[in-house]
Design goal:
Helices cover about 15% and strands about 30% of the residues. It has 4 helices and 11 strands, in the order αααβββαββββββββ. β1 and β2 form a beta hairpin. α1 crosses α3. The longest helix has 13 residues. The protein is elongated and about 65 Å long.
Length: about 210
């Protein structure tokens, strides 16, 4: 999270910022540029971290772990297979996915990422493949996968969703695509683990609604 957003969020937990103008909020967090305050307030609102009732001039922080409707707010940490992935290293939360707990196989220590591309469109996670735009639910507490597990990996700053195999004989990790197209596996030597990190095991897939493809 950006430092300005963090300071605004912390302040809004103890104080109603609604009646204050941008300059006054800036003074409270030692920031001289009102437009920066405006930008970061909008970002916090988009991510569901603050609620701004403009009519009644109330701005408050919300607890992302709770929901008055009984839904689980699962943090969205960006997407995989689409560029630089400092999202995992920095815990950068883009927003929250509201999901009924009955639809989740686990509700703690999880995050979601949006799948990008078709390198795993033949995967089988509880009978579901991973297609472009699907939400992938990941268990962040699981970083010691067994052969055949689907994992989210960070490789030289790039995020990947692949099937994990450890080839002890050849001293390498093989990350296998499962696709209708011809994608090559990724090979990582066991002596190159400084540039490789497991960011969790894939638990389930929340499919993109069919009507979005029409």
């Amino acid at each position: 999270m950006h430092p300005i957003q963090e300071r605004i969020l912390n302040l809004s937990k103890d104080k109603n910022l609604g009646p204050l103008n941008l300059r006054k909020i800036g003074l409270l967090i030692n920031e001289d540029h009102p437009q920066k305050i405006k930008h970061h307030l909008e970002q916090l609102e988009k991510r569901g971290l603050v609620v701004y009732d403009r009519e009644n001039r109330k701005l408050r922080a919300i607890d992302p772990e709770s929901d008055p409707n009984g839904l689980i707010n699962v943090p969205i940490l960006g997407s995989a297979n689409c560029g630089e992935a400092t999202i995992f290293a920095d815990n950068y939360i883009e927003g929250y996915l509201k999901v009924s707990p009955r639809l989740l196989v686990k509700t703690s220590n999880i995050y979601v990422i949006e799948a990008s591309g078709d390198s795993m469109n033949q995967a089988d996670i509880n009978g579901k493949s991973i297609e472009d735009g699907d939400y992938v639910v990941v268990d962040s507490s699981y970083n010691n996968p067994e052969n055949g597990h689907y994992v989210v990996s960070l490789i030289d700053g790039m995020a990947n969703i692949k099937r994990f195999f450890k080839d002890e004989k050849n001293k390498q990790i093989v990350l296998m695509p499962e696709s209708t197209k011809n994608y090559s596996p990724i090979y990582i030597g066991l002596d190159e683990m400084d540039s490789y990190r497991i960011c969790g095991r894939v638990l389930q897939i929340i499919k993109k609604p069919n009507f979005l493809n029409q």
